[in-house]
């Protein structure tokens, strides 16, 4: 339920209102990455298209509009956050050894590890070139705003890497605790949500208070999104998610519901959980065991409730902004983050 003080306006279907923005982003992606090109370009296109949810570019566009800016001038910046995101996913699949991404072979599985690493590098480095496309002397974005956005994106890239390194430290450690997990996800997942929303607020000319509100919105949204994402192996099948449900189990990643389960379980259930995540069982059997324990301990429901609470906090941050179509879309994205099946 949307809190009463959220800055939404009367929009019958906010996500339908976002459809033209999504179509614009897709057209521009397709235009910038033609099919006939050199090898690195073709592999980059494979990574980018067909596109995923385009959630981060949408957030940037709507954040800019929510503070009174936006429009075509911020499209390059919106695409740049997608390049940073997709480049990081290409590298993630190399690190985790994942063969599937978005329902088809990952870049590494199709083209090999070397080309995947180079492609991820190229996409992430290309972020900054396309971000500055919005600057010109005839009606473009003010250079000072673009420079501030570059700083935000650069920090996001570093935070993302910090989160990835921390995830490696936590791998296989069910005793790491929820606080360390939340810190890790705030870096690895939250970084690009913050970059998109804060970057959009900067490029749109938002006040310091508006930038702060959208940054806080993004932080809660990122938490909600990752908490829900961790539930998908137990609530959706791989044909829907486009990624193997066994990935987290095989990599011994201590995800949010698993850590909740470890904290809530008694000694016998905790021992079973540790055995399942410790490689004592085949991955498919381990997944079934973990799913059963999540249900019987109540951790699955508890994780859903906490994810929903984070989504509600994200929406409450929008109260600092003028009511508009854009804030309605941002509120709808928060709801979607904890109701999606992929």
Automatic annotation (TrEMBL):
The keyword Transferase applies. Its cofactor is Mg(2+). It holds the Pfam family polyprenyl_synt. Keywords: Magnesium, Metal-binding, Transferase. One of its GO terms (biological process) is isoprenoid biosynthetic process. InterPro entries: Isoprenoid_synthase_dom_sf, Polyprenyl_synt, Polyprenyl_synt_CS. One of its GO terms (molecular function) is metal ion binding. Gene3D superfamilies: Farnesyl Diphosphate Synthase (1.10.600.10). Belongs to the FPP/GGPP synthase family. This is Polyprenyl synthetase family protein. The lineage of its organism: Bacteria, Bacillati, Actinomycetota, Actinomycetes, Kitasatosporales.
